[in-house]
Design a protein that fits this description.
By secondary structure, this protein is an alpha/beta fold. It has 3 domains: 44 residues, 434 Repressor (Amino-terminal Domain), CATH 1.10.260; 130 residues, 3-Layer(aba) Sandwich (Rossmann fold); 139 residues, Response regulator (Rossmann fold, 3-Layer(aba) Sandwich), CATH 3.40.50.2300. It has 13 helices and 12 strands. The strands form 3 sheets. It has a 6-stranded parallel sheet with strand order 2-1-3-4-5-11, with helices on both faces. Strand 3, helix 7 and strand 4 form a beta-alpha-beta unit. Helix 5 crosses helix 13 and helix 8 crosses helix 9. Bound molecules: alpha-D-ribofuranose. Alpha-D-ribofuranose binds next to loops.
């Protein structure tokens, strides 16, 4: 049998209204009364039913965040930034992991709508997909994270991934590498496609350089390790002399894969650069060069864009685009 507000009021010897004030506006209640009601709540094990309050308020104090891969430290850092900023408003972040699966993404969007979240922060699996439109039609404010809709009808925060790809490959070219491989995930992932486009634009400036594209099933350490092993098994004259990985998880795995046979030295035989600059990049056995994304700032900014949309629903739509940053470490040589 669940404990009600009435049970708490009877136990504390106050009215139901006083219990409600203690729960919602404790600063308006005498300290001694707050302590008496809190003692009754603790003794009875009362848990407030937020659903009724949410229905009255129209929206909950929570924000839904859906990321592509919650196992990727980049998105974990984005979530931390979002949580820190939301907490300053007395709000909480509910995290959903689409795992790059459109059906899971829709399930989370439906769940967050049922939960009457104040808004949704979304890294979409498919920008043109129904999920984004579905949410827009539902009237729940949406902010695109690590993505931007052409035409800009939805607030967004992202990084210029084409610039990031150019930075990575220009750095490899500057290190004298000429047989470059791009190791990425499905080109349907916009971030991957843009990084590859940046790589191509950088290579266009160096006629004697070549680009091999290795498209993997996923952007994971295991996929990166398999790619590293495959490269290491090749005859030396068939190997690239540098690899640009679409993210650091691939780069960490690729570094492991090349080490398994012990025949490829990093960076002497093969320079490696990743993307995101997650902590594992710096901690790798050969510290990895990477293209840094301000993940935590992306999360903070996403919440701020949502707060702006909540404050003025018909206000100007803002798009924030951070610039990526080259971080040079041992994996591309000094
Ligand atoms: O989800 C794939 C990649 O896109 C992540 O590693 C991060 O770089 C994001 O921008």
């Amino acid at each position: 049998m669940s404990v009600s507000v009435k049970d708490v009021a009877a136990r504390a010897g106050v009215s139901v209204g006083t219990v409600s004030n203690v729960l919602n506006r404790p600063d308006k209640v005498a300290r001694a009364t707050v302590e008496r009601v809190q003692a009754a709540i603790d003794a009875l094990g009362f848990v407030r039913n937020d659903a009724a309050r949410q229905l009255r308020a129209g929206r909950s104090r929570s924000i839904g965040l859906i990321v592509l891969d919650s196992a990727n430290p980049f998105f974990a850092e984005v979530a931390r930034g979002a949580e820190e900023r939301a907490a300053r408003e007395g709000m909480a972040v509910l995290l959903g992991n689409s795992d790059q699966n459109a059906d899971r993404e829709v399930s989370y969007l439906d769940l967050f709508r049922e939960q009457r979240v104040s808004g949704v922060l979304l890294t979409p699996t498919d920008l043109a997909g129904s999920a984004v439109r579905r949410l827009a039609d539902s009237g729940i404010p949406l902010v695109l994270v690590d993505e931007e809709l052409p035409g800009g009808a939805t607030p967004s925060v992202a990084v210029d991934d084409i610039e990031g790809g150019m930075l990575a490959v220009s750095h490899l070219l500057g290190r004298g590498r000429r047989r470059i491989a791009f190791v990425g995930g499905p080109s349907s992932i916009r971030q991957v496609a843009d990084r590859l486009e940046g790589a191509r634009r950088a290579l266009a400036t160096t006629p004697d350089a070549s680009l091999e594209v290795i498209e993997l099933d996923a952007l994971t350490v295991l996929c990166g390790r398999d790619a590293g092993e495959e490269i290491a098994r090749r005859p030396a004259d068939e190997r690239p002399d540098a690899v640009f990985c679409a993210n650091d998880l691939l780069a960490v795995g690729l570094l492991q894969g090349t080490a398994i046979l012990g025949s490829v030295r990093v960076p002497e035989d093969l320079a490696i650069i990743g993307y995101d600059d997650i902590d594992f990049a710096q901690a790798a056995v050969v510290p990895l060069s990477s293209i840094r994304q301000p993940a935590r700032a992306i999360g903070v900014t996403a919440v701020e864009l949502l707060l702006e949309a909540l404050a003025s629903p018909r206000g100007a739509v803002r798009h924030v685009r951070f610039q990526p940053e080259l971080v040079v470490r041992a994996s591309t040589g000094r």
